[in-house]
Design goal:
about 280 residues; alpha+beta; 7-stranded mixed β-barrel; two-stranded antiparallel sheet; about 25% strand; extended; Prok_Ku; SPOC-like_C_dom_sf; DNA recombination
């Protein structure tokens, strides 16, 4: 399992060196977009709409939009300085609470924690303390340069860190539109609904739940893989090279056109005036 973070868990004077691993994975089937004409993958390039050109990473700066089209530019050095201040912080457990006191709306992502070198004894100690007390730890930790609030708990004999939202990240339920007020419920309807709940009540078994759409989509893809009418091979990247004869003819024509434009025009004879014409006529007689 890939190690994505190394650090320590601390509570009181106890420090536990740990490694962190992603506990979940996204199994969504990612579909690519192809050009219908040649079946080449579509690219998404970073472009500036004002300069009308592609922008390199070196020419991009980070900024915060505090009002419409008004930005505060943040230098990379400033951001790195803030990150460095947080780098040395461990996963510090600040409180112990009961799991049922936290509403599921706060939970975000789960990570497995394994003991790092020399951490097995302290790891087992914290695991046993959490199990016997029925408590979980509330901790602060840094993941990808962001300070996270997290829960440290036991899951099947393994410590896990579960990131949770800060209170100001959870929207106010009062803002949810069209929620009906508490009203009087028909007693007969309520009893019938409760009976239905009882009939459908069972022990939670995660293995019985599957993503039926993903399964059906994978089966469809497998079926179509063996049918040439539904498969495609992307064309080589880059524009196809024109025929050599076409290149030469274009070059010759362009050269000829340029030569015609650059060739100096022969001097035009000046128009004779009426007076000069009369003098020339007298001299001849």
């Amino acid at each position: 399992m890939h190690t994505m973070w190394k650090g320590t868990i601390s509570f009181g004077l106890v420090n536990i060196p740990v490694k962190m691993h992603a506990a979940t994975e996204n199994k969504d089937i990612k579909l690519r977009q192809l050009h219908k004409e040649c079946q080449s993958p579509i690219k998404y390039e970073k472009t500036c709409p004002v300069c009308d050109k592609e922008v390199d990473n070196d020419d991009i700066v980070k900024a915060y939009e505090y009002a419409k089209n008004k930005f505060v530019i943040l230098e990379e050095e400033e951001l790195k300085a803030l990150q460095k201040e947080q780098e040395d912080k461990a996963v510090e457990i600040v409180d112990f609470v009961k799991l049922e006191e936290i509403d599921p709306i706060y939970f975000e992502k789960t990570y497995f924690l394994s003991p790092n070198e020399g951490g097995s004894k302290a790891y087992s100690l914290l695991r046993s303390a959490l199990t016997d007390s029925g408590k979980i730890g509330i901790a602060k930790m840094i993941i990808r340069s962001k300070e996270q609030l997290a829960v440290i708990r036991v899951y099947q004999n393994t410590l896990v860190a579960e990131t949770i939202h800060y209170p100001d990240e959870v929207r106010d339920v009062q803002d949810v539109p069209n929620v009906p007020e508490e009203g009087k419920t028909d007693e007969k309807e309520l009893e019938t609904a409760k009976m239905l709940v009882e009939q459908l009540t069972t022990e939670f078994n995660p293995e019985k739940y599957t993503d039926e759409y993903r399964t059906a989509l994978l089966e469809l893809i497998e079926d179509k893989k063996n049918n040439k009418d539904y498969t495609a091979t992307a064309a080589p990247e880059g524009k196809p090279a024109p025929d050599a004869a076409t290149n030469l003819m274009d070059a010759l024509q362009a050269s000829l056109d340029r030569a015609k434009q650059d060739k100096p025009k022969p001097p035009q004879p000046k128009p004779k005036t009426k007076e000069k014409a009369v003098k020339k006529k007298k001299a001849a007689t």
